[in-house]
Amino acid sequence: MFQIAICDDESFYREKLGRLLKQYLEKHALPYVITEYVSGEEFLGQCPNRVKYDIVFLDISMEKMDGVQTAQQIRAFHSDTSIVFVTAFIDYALEGYKVDAVRYILKDSPDDAIAECMDAILRKRKAAQITFPFAEGEKKLYTENILYVESRKHKAVFFYMEKEIVSYQIYEKLDAVEERLSGCGFLRIHKSYLVNMKHIRKISNYLAFLDTGEELPVPRTKYQKVKEEFVAYQGAL
C-alpha cells in the first residue's frame, strides 16, 4: 500500500497532481492512499506524518513554511520518504540536494514528468525489498519500513509501517534475522531488539527513542557501543 501525500496551497495543482498519480498507480495495479494538505504546517501538525508517507509531493513556494523547510523537518527524523518538489521555477537545486529530493516537477508540465518520477521511485524501492517466510505466508518487505524486530521466545516479530504499524511473525532466531538485514542500517540495541536506525531519533538514558514515540531499552553493558554505532551512522548520512 503506497501512502502518498500532496502538499500544495493551490487546490488546482493538488487536484491535477492527484489525478495524474491515480492514473499511474491504477495503470500499474498498485494499491494506494493519497492524502492532500494545504500547507507545510498542516502536514507537520501530525508528528507521524514525518515518517508515515512513502512519497511526499511538496510545493516549494508555500506561504509561511515552504516546501524546503517542510522537507528539512521530514529529513530531521531520518525518514526515507521519497521527496518530490513541485515548483514553477527550477532554481532550487542546492536545497533539493540537501534534502535528497528525488525529482523536481514543473507545475506547468507535470503530465510526462509524473510517470518518469514514479518509475524512478519504484526502481529504488524495489532494490530495497527483502522476502521473509512469515506465519501469514511469504511476504516482501521494504527494509526502510521495518521499524524494529523483537525476539519473543522462538519467534521474531517484525513491526512494520504500512497504513498503520502492523506486526508479522516468523519462527526464527533474532541472530538469523540480523544476519539477513546486515548492511541495511539495523542496530542490535538489546538481545531482544534489532532496530532500524533510520527510525531512531536519539539514544539517551539507556533508551532508544523512535520516531513513532516508542522507547526501547538499551542495557548498560551495551549502551556505550550502541550509542557509538548510532553516532557513526548519523555521521555517514
Descriptive report:
The chain is α/β, with parallel strands linked by helices and 237 residues long. Helices cover 35% and strands 34% of the residues. The protein is built from eight helices and 15 strands. It has helices spanning 11-27, 40-44, 49-52, 67-75, 93-98, 110-126, 174-180, 220-236; strands at residues 2-7, 32-37, 55-59, 82-87, 103-106, 129-134, 137-142, 146-152, 155-161, 165-170, 186-190, 193-196, 200-204, 207-210, 215-217. The protein has a five-stranded parallel sheet, with helices on both faces. Strands 10-9-8-12-11 form a five-stranded antiparallel sheet. The longest helix has 17 residues, at 11-27. The model has no long low-confidence stretch (mean pLDDT 86).
Short description:
The protein is α/β, with parallel strands linked by helices and 237 residues long.
Structural class: alpha/beta
Order of helices and strands: EHEHHEHEHEHEEEEEHEEEEEH
How much of the residues is beta strand, in percent?
Answer: 25-35%
Biggest beta-sheet profile: 5 strands, parallel
Kindly report the spatial arrangement of strands forming the biggest sheet.
2-1-3-4-5
Helical proportion?
A: 25-40%
Average pLDDT over all residues: 86
Note poorly predicted spans.
Answer: none
The best one-word shape is: globular
